[in-house]
Specification:
The protein is of the alpha/beta class. Helices cover 39% and strands 15% of the residues. The strands form four sheets. The chain has a seven-stranded mixed beta sheet, sandwiched between helices. β6, α6 and β7 form a beta-alpha-beta unit. α13 crosses α18 and α14 packs antiparallel against α15. It is globular. The two termini are 47 Å apart. It binds zinc ion (ZN).
Length: 758
């Protein structure tokens, strides 16, 4: 899975001044001389990834359904391991035993006022050869839905996020004892049953409205790329904002003898049964609803009048799963480093899919495999990485980042000590190089983007992103894109395998992939397959090659830089922007709450309500107090000063030629600088974690508790303000400030050490 938001659209903002950069040809972290050598190897590297191989590898890996526990999942893992070995890598399969429920019984039926039984089956499409593999396909379902057999009135809840329930409440519609039907979209899917259960619903259906990824947006498959009438989005509904990975073993690897929760104890399994359905199956259910017509923004593209319900509509929902443990097959390949072998560069993409998964995840994995082949070729020609390179093909990403999380938890101590950075991809298509990640790597990845050519536009992927930001951005984003040295990258929420590395272990991470120019309505359905991909996405695999070039160059630079290419001024500036956002958020909330109170006093809601479709007044809220932002502002000032000093010293190091002789005092200082540099992201974590979800330790980035994939930056502070938990805001501010102060101290010490390198 992967969040679809285009990162450059999220990046907006002000101008920064940074010290004069070294000549544009000098790569970040390299001296002019070592840069020249690096560039020669990169030119050789870029020539190797091959279009025909990208295509044939995709065809091989997506030939049959390959979800967790299936025979073809294991066959793929073994084939991948053997490929890595044939490229000259050390490669093994690492197994974990995880809870992965698969469906045994699924029933959705309307029992009043008329009857209708949902089909719950995606049909074969004649032109699409793998769509007929029904014996091996996982039926459409939501993994980690609790078993249940419930009957109740049906209520439509829009996207099923907290604001939608406020709207229902004001229309006098309760979901207590009801089965709710929510549209996909608007939040990560697992939020929908969580919020529904919080409001007393007994069951949850999630359907794909044609307005969002069906005929409302283009021709449906097989004529076009969009979701057909009976297409269904599978997906996990475990409460991943609490913790991802195996629900039975939070915080530890799911090895044979691991201490496990029972299924009944596992806190991330849903509280009510859930099933996803197609719009073909949803239409008769939604047509049966009575009650008020929903607001404009709730309506979809079905030829019906969308109403809240319930009226006489009653639905029966039954879900039962096989709850046995299944075995994960993570493929882990190593290319050992030379002088800095204790420092690890990690690159990953998952290999498991919901069904055939040509786009998700194989389109990203084929690029990763071509990188590995190309690095193996260079190795044979004499190239050596200074640092150890680890390439992973994760299993079990789709059910909840299982393979990456269990591996990261099982190797947590080593990873905290050795990991420099984690580079993720998960699916690839046509368009823009979308980058999100740690802002300490923003400058570095901008450098990589400048050295990859967009295969259709013929300019660098960086240039194309810059112009797209100018075209689509706000005035501030336009000015930024033209004048700031680096394009902004978005922060990471969740939705793919970087989460355990970044947000649990504090390893600087990046997620990259091309996209933004494909239309697609086959996500997590049986139609995400080789036929669809080679007709509607990167059909010539030129963006697959570009991704291999981008990610491979990033890995090579991280592996061979003289000084690890972290830069902290962009991080400090971004943190400053987050604080400004939080101050504005507090002020906005204060105005909203005061205004609403005034309207309640004025009796506005009662008087303006239409007696035939009455609307209730909202409940009053606690007034927003003033908050103590000073510790945060002081901390970011310290970080800014430390970062500026580091940049000055770094630039001087490059101007001195950068080189230190092997065995010299300078060389050993440089080694110790790198050992401390790789801890810089760790300094931003707090061992006790976020207050309601301790698994997440990063103080700057987390998936939203009520958004799922969407990021919340400085999450402890932001979510306390958003949810009106005013008494916890100031303590949360202190915790984020402490993290920024730790970072400032470390960066300051690094600047002193680097200044001494001769
Ligand atoms: Zn995926």
């Amino acid at each position: 899975m992967r969040s679809i938001a285009a990162s450059f659209l999220l990046a907006a903002g002000g101008v920064t001044l940074s010290p004069r950069a070294p000549t544009p040809d000098t790569l970040r972290g390299f001296s002019p001389e070592s840069s020249r050598v690096e560039r020669e190897w990169e030119a050789k590297f870029r020539a190797i990834p091959d279009l025909a191989r990208l295509r044939s590898t995709m065809q091989r890996l997506s030939a049959r359904p390959h979800h967790v526990g299936s025979p073809y999942d294991k066959a793929n893992a073994e084939w991948l391991r053997d490929q890595f070995r044939s490229f000259g890598w050390q490669a093994e399969i690492e197994n974990f035993d995880v809870l992965f429920p698969t469906p045994k019984e699924r029933v959705v039926e309307l029992i009043a006022p008329t009857t209708f039984k949902a089909r719950l089956q995606e049909p074969t499409v004649a032109v699409d050869p793998t769509s007929s593999q029904h014996d091996e396909q996982l039926p459409s379902y939501n993994a980690y839905s609790i078993d249940g057999d419930v009957t109740g009135p049906l209520v439509f809840v829009n996207y099923g996020v907290p604001a939608d329930y406020e709207e229902l409440e004001r229309h006098g519609v309760s979901v207590k004892g009801a089965v709710v039907i929510a549209k996909y979209g608007g939040s990560w899917r697992g939020i929908k049953p969580k919020v529904a259960a919080e409001h007393g619903a007994v069951g949850c259906l999630i359907y794909s409205d044609p307005r969002d990824d069906g005929y409302g947006d283009g021709d449906v498959f097989p004529k076009g790329p969009m979701r057909p009438r009976d297409g269904v989005q599978r997906g996990s509904v475990a409460d991943m904002p609490t913790y991802p990975g195996d629900p039975l073993t939070p915080g530890i690897g799911a090895t044979k003898d691991a201490k496990r929760y029972t299924v009944a104890e596992a806190p991330t399994i849903t509280k009510i049964p859930v099933l996803p359905i197609s719009y073909g199956d949803a239409e008769p259910l939604l047509s049966a609803l009575a009650g008020d017509v929903v607001p404009e923004s709730w309506r979809g593209s079905l030829p019906i009048t969308y109403r809240f319900g319930p009226g006489a509509a009653r639905v029966h929902l039954r879900v039962k799963s096989d709850w046995s443990l299944k075995t994960l097959n993570d493929v882990i390949a190593r290319l050992p480093g030379t002088s800095e072998s204790e420092q690890w560069i990690i690159r990953g993409n998952h290999h498991d899919a919901w069904v055939n998964g040509a786009e998700d995840p194989i389109s990203g994995l084929v690029a990763e495999l071509e990188e590995a082949r190309a690095l193996g070729e260079l190795y044979k020609q004499g190239w050596r990485p200074k640092r150890t390179i680890i390439y992973a093909a994760w299993d079990g990403e789709e059910p909840g980042l299982l393979g990456s999380t269990e591996w990261a938890e099982a190797h947590a101590d080593e990873l905290r000590q050795h990991a420099v950075a984690y580079l993720n991809s998960d699916s690839n298509g046509r368009g823009y190089l979308q980058v999100q990640g740690s802002h300490s790597l923003e400058k570095f990845i901008n450098g990589v983007e400048k050295d990859v050519v967009d295969p259709e536009a013929g300019v660098s992927s960086w240039k194309r992103n810059q112009l797209a930001t100018i075209q689509r951005g706000t005035a501030e984003a336009r000015r930024d894109a033209r004048e700031r040295e680096d394009l902004r990258i978005g922060a990471l929420g969740s939705g793919s395998d970087y989460t355990p590395f970044l947000q649990h272990l504090g390893i600087a991470s990046l997620d990259i992939g091309y996209g933004g120019e494909d239309q697609s309505g086959i996500y997590h359905s049986i139609y995400d397959d080789f036929y669809w991909y080679t007709h509607f996405s990167d059909t010539a695999f030129v963006y697959g090659r570009a991704l291999a070039q981008a990610a491979g160059q990033a890995v090579m630079r991280l592996a061979n830089a003289d000084i690890l290419p972290f830069a902290f001024s962009n991080l400090a500036e971004t943190a400053q922007r987050y604080i400004t956002e939080l101050q504005q958020l507090r002020d906005r909330r204060a105005i909203e709450i005061a205004e609403r109170d005034k309207e309640i006093e004025e009796n506005l809601f009662a008087i303006t309500s239409d007696p035939r479709a009455p609307i209730r007044a909202p409940a009053p809220e606690v007034r927003a107090p003033q908050l103590e932002f000073a510790p945060l502002l002081n901390a970011v000032d310290s970080l800014t000063r430390a970062a500026q000093r580091y940049e000055r010293v770094y630039t001087q190091w490059v101007e001195r030629g950068g080189v230190t002789q092997a065995g010299s005092a300078g060389a050993s200082t440089l080694k110790s600088i790198n050992e401390r540099l790789l801890q810089a992201e760790r300094a931003l974590t707090s061992p006790e974690g976020l207050s309601k979800r301790g698994w997440y330790t990063h103080m700057l980035y987390a998936p939203g508790f009520y958004t799922g994939y969407g990021v919340k930056t400085m999450p402890g502070v932001r979510e306390a303000i958003e949810q009106g938990e005013w008494t916890s805001v100031n303590p949360e501010i202190s915790r984020v400030a402490a993290a920024l102060n730790r970072e400032a101290t470390l960066v300051s010490q690094l600047a002193e050490s680097l200044n001494a390198v001769r």
